Amino acid sequence: MATRDSKPYVQYFYFLYLSVFVVLQCVLLCESGHNMKGRAETNGMFVFGSSLVDNGNNNFVNGSVAKADYLPYGIDFPLGPSGRFCNGKNMIDALGEQLKLPHFIPVFTDPMTKGMRLVHGVNYASGGSGILDDTGSVSGRVITLNQQIKNFDEVTLPDLETLLDCKGTELLSNYLFVVGAGGNDYLLSYFLSGAYKTLPIQDFTANLTATLSNQLKKLHSLGARKFVLISIYPMGYTPVVKAMCSSASEGCTGMMNQAALLFNSHLKALVDEIKPQMPSSNLVYINTYQIINDIISDPGSRGFTDAIKPCCEVGANGILCKRDGSACLNRNSHVFFDGLHPTEAVNVVMMERAYASDLTAEAYPFNVKKLASL
């Protein structure tokens, strides 16, 4: 664990290593085959979504209250508190390890994310954001999914094309485009906002999926070809929702889970429906709902002892850890680190399944390992 005093030095040497490494590797990215044989299984990842996949973008967003740049967040992360909503590695870090990527994916809003730091991908995700532009207003300022895609299109892509002297599909065909969004559109928008009171959830979900479909098509038009779509996990089992529903009937948590299942069924169907409209594309659906639900249903068999309580001391909103608050000692045995986000141990399990599972109930129509090899 990095202390506050040692953190700047750890980060300095990490960035020094990173700079040297990318100088040696970036010239390989546009060569025949687009893959660094014997090293990473893909050139990198471009990541879009919310706090579950945010590597720290909100650290640099003035006005955002959805930040995790303080202890106990990052208590088990090599660089200490980094803006990840977790005790350690989040899903993107865990997936990067499976793919043998050489370093953590940098965040778009960090002023240091430029030049050769772009060559293995960029993370645009923003905690509190959603697929819809009006999602996340309760979190202060967030970066919407539309804006995330715009940041990729108007800033990163031109810089990367200039840096590597190749364009469009030639450049992007062996990068993964990971999208993890949707949960906040229900938690912070549909169920919390009065704007959707009269809209049936089926109609809301259809609109949400149609919006996401157009966003994926936009990425495809820019050259993206390999997509990883991460489902919504069982929101009703999160500590914050259980606390909110404690005075209500069991139907409260069930309603949240049914919303997640409804969206996930649309998302999985989208994999087959959108592919003919996006030539040469391949899409993989990762059912994190199924994976976490299996853990919660029988935690002991998977090495977990607490699938109910948050590991950290949460604040008044029931979601985020208190600044400099306490955290449990047995973090690897907890499913949830704070009121909403999984622990590193759960993230690792989810991405191990995403990468290698042969079960279509977990990775559809095939796993990320196969996607990376295409």
UniProtKB/TrEMBL annotation:
InterPro entries linked: GDSL (IPR001087), GDSL_esterase/lipase (IPR051238), SGNH_hydro_sf (IPR036514), SGNH_plant_lipase-like (IPR035669)
Glycoprotein recorded as keyword: no
Subcellular location: Secreted
Hydrolase as UniProt keyword: yes
Ranges that cross the membrane: 12-30
Annotated GO biological process: lipid catabolic process
Pfam family, one: Lipase_GDSL
Gene Ontology CC annotations of this record: extracellular region
Gene Ontology MF terms in the entry: hydrolase activity, acting on ester bonds
Gene3D superfamilies according to UniProt: SGNH hydrolase
Domain of life of the organism encoding this protein: Eukaryota
UniProt main location, coarse: secreted
Keywords of the record: Hydrolase, Lipid degradation, Lipid metabolism, Membrane, Secreted, Signal, Transmembrane, Transmembrane helix
Similarity-based family: Belongs to the 'GDSL' lipolytic enzyme family.
Alphabetized PANTHER family for the sequence: GDSL-LIKE LIPASE/ACYLHYDROLASE-RELATED, OS06G0560700 PROTEIN
Name the UniProt record assigns to this protein: GDSL esterase/lipase
Lineage summary: Eukaryota, Viridiplantae, Streptophyta, Embryophyta, Tracheophyta
